[in-house]
C-alpha cells in the first residue's frame, strides 16, 4: 500500500511561458508596418481592378 504521498500522483510539467516579445514595442511596430504594406498593396489592386472596369466599360462596343 502507498501512503498517498506526492510520489504516487502523476506529475505534469508546468506550461512553458510563450513570451516571444508579443508585448514589446518593436513587435507592435513590425506588425503595424506589415499591415500598412498589405493595405497599400490590396488597395492598389482594388483601384487597378476598378480602373480596369471603367476602361473596359468605356471601350465596349
From TrEMBL:
Keywords: Membrane, Transmembrane, Transmembrane helix. It comes from Streptomyces olivoverticillatus. Residues 1-21 are annotated as: Disordered. The chain crosses the membrane at residues 36-58. This is Cytoskeletal protein RodZ. Pfam families: DUF6126. The keyword Transmembrane applies.
